[in-house]
Amino acid sequence: MSARLAGVIALFAAASLHPLAAHAEAERFSVITGGKVVGHVDTDTQGSATTIDFDVKNNGRGPTMKEALVLDAKGLPIAWSVDGNTTFGSKVAERFKLVGRAARWTDNTGTGRARLSEPAFYVPQSGSPWVLGVEARALLAAPGRSLPALPSGRLKIVEGETFTIDGEGGPVQATQYTISGVDLDPSYVLLAPDRSLFAVISPHSVVVKKGYEGEEVRLRDIAADLSTRRYVDLQRRFAHRYEGPVRVTDVRLFDPVAKALTERVSVVVMGSRIAAVEPADSPITPGETVIDGAGGTLVPGLADMHAHLGQDDAMLNLLAGVTTVRDMGNDNAVLSKLVAQMDGGEIAGPRVVRSGFVEGKSPFNANNGILADSEAAAVAAVDWYGARGYWQIKIYNSMNPAWVPAVIAEAHRLGMRVAGHVPAFTNADAMMAAGYDEMTHINQIALGWVLEPGEDTRTLLRLTALKRLGPLDLAGAKVQGTIETMAKGGIAIDPTFGIHEHLLLNRDGKVPRGAVDYFDHMPPSVQRSLKRQWIDTSAPGDDAAYRAAYAKLVEVLKLMQRRGIFIVPGTDTGGAFTLHRELELYTGLGMSPADVLARDTLEVQRYMGRDQELGSIAKGKLADFFLVPGDPTKDIRAIKTIALVVKDGLLYFPSEVYPEFGIEPFIAIPKVTASAKAAEPVPPPSGAHEH
Asked: Is 240-300+625-679 assigned to CATH 3.40.50.2000?
């Protein structure tokens, strides 16, 4: 008998003593992403005990979990087990048990215990979406609709609107609730009139009772509206616009041309542009608002060149000094609406350069952008993106390699660049020969050096095969040929190096070295998530093999840097704090901190043809910059402590906003002195805060 089955039997045995033991119910839910059913949540309840089968497969990967849960008479968990595999394959064997007031649990971060002074709700690290329904019912029954959370934090629930949802089972009056308290962002659920879970919704995906899949678009729209309301409110309260000029005094500027700091100056912003860069002792004119830079450094806005932007990322990126992102694939309609909201000042977020995502149809395809089932359809997708001003095309895993030359030819004809993954059953050399301008992800190049013919990279193999890299001879013909092609052809690399650090080096229970500078500031669920590994290292030798793979990738990128290959800084992990780490990693590749800052400011803006407006702090340019107290040319980590961000004439003080996300601020807010005239606000654009 397996340990998991034994645990389930034990749970049901305990449930048989419960007064609700006669109650039996089965619930079935569909998981939908990009309009496609990609998984399920199936639950079977007998009395107070429930078993849950949760499985998702999207883009060739996803979690597979089996849960067993027992609730007490108040709907609070007293026993819980979760077994399975995470999205990238790491193993899960989570346990929780409450006996009297003594709670004990084990998850991927380790073992914890607590003695309860009041009822509490254990939040599983690897639980299925169905957990949110259990949380909602417990919170609705709790005093003040709030409960302490285990391992830490406090959950709360707020009731929203009631909607009529139609489906095969007839119309349901479902009420929306917002659950928050342990994560960066709230969760949105719909409960049926009997308070059973009906749906878990987000702007990009939904989990909904079977028979109601036809309402998926509407449910996503409801979630998008809820999210928008939240961020409109944050913009109203925390985006500052001052009448007249704004002067940031006593600062030095990072000059990305000289790759050095200037002497102390004042920077004057009027509207959305830099009106002047003046000597530090220049007079302050009447009507100015003055911000004391306190001898700190102004850095031009950073760029995350590998984003998949959503509303939940937008403001956090801006607060981290990321004023530009290059979106590398998205739901086109969702992104278009988000860009309009940010550009109009309705919500906070960076400027967006869009990549047109083109994917082939297969059992493993991603569900972003446009899916093509023929060469003609793939070329037509390029035309669609070209007509809408997209900067480049991104090709993905399930694209038929035979279609790629035609796709690239059409993109180049329309003045667009081409980047992307290496489609399955080909290699980076073939794609560069077909005309790629940039390669996406360092693993996509390295796989061509270690895969056997016919191996399918539409699956997790595109990640797990990296453990073969350790013995690779970088002086060999395969590696040197690829590097030579890139160097001679001016082909750039977007390595997303930080995600490979997480993938290959994160281990259960350990704070990742890339997160040490912000870990303690994060809310409970983020801390738990950071302290878990992504891949399965349980087989003998795998731990060492993955560590060796990371070391090999470091050497590959050093080699590329020495050969002059343009390294494009991007994350694929949401940006913000992870972009700071991405840049920090580049200082280990032979680049100085000043080299890295120049790369991610003026040089990437020049790469995208936007350097006349962005990338440096100079008179007439758009006012995109941030203030830090230290000198990032000496220690790149100074960019992690941001006191002020300016974009489009709006000023943000991150320490004001971070508590709204459950983040502990990093630094004090700078001193702001507004003149008598400046104290009167001007009407801000669409919801910006009146100071």
From this structure: no
